[in-house]
Amino acid sequence: MDILQTSMSIIAGAGDAKSCAMEAIYSAREGNYEEARISLEKAKEALRDTHSIQTDLITKEMQGEKMELALIMVHAQDHLMSAVLIKDLAAEIVTMYERFTK
């Protein structure tokens, strides 16, 4: 897979994770905690798959394979980082909504 395809795969996976995390927050706000937990699990799965792409890139580089540094890859890494952050915050927000309604 070339750098453009790899970058786009990371961006797409991160976008899926962010969407699922936000859906979890929206569900929790409406009191649908089971649905929120399912959305959080979907976000985790999307991140797991996307993180494996990143891990493969890092492993290849550590093994001496040179990677082209492209702005699109920097952009992809930014998306991945923000997706991880949003997923973590969404999990905390869902928990807070649950506690506040009890």
From TrEMBL:
Gene3D superfamilies membership: Phosphotransferase system, lactose/cellobiose-type IIA subunit
Residues annotated as the enzyme's active site: 75 (tele-phosphohistidine intermediate)
Residue(s) carrying Phosphohistidine: 75
UniProtKB keywords: Magnesium, Metal-binding, Phosphotransferase system, Sugar transport, Transferase, Transport
Gene Ontology MF annotations: metal ion binding; transferase activity
Keyword Ubl conjugation on entry: no
Keyword Metal-binding part of the UniProt annotation: yes
Cofactor note: Binds 1 Mg(2+) ion per trimer.
GO process terms (BP): phosphoenolpyruvate-dependent sugar phosphotransferase system
Cofactor: Mg(2+)
Residue positions binding Mg(2+): 78
Protein name per UniProt: Phosphotransferase system PTS lactose/cellobiose-specific IIA subunit
Organism of provenance: Ruminiclostridium papyrosolvens DSM 2782
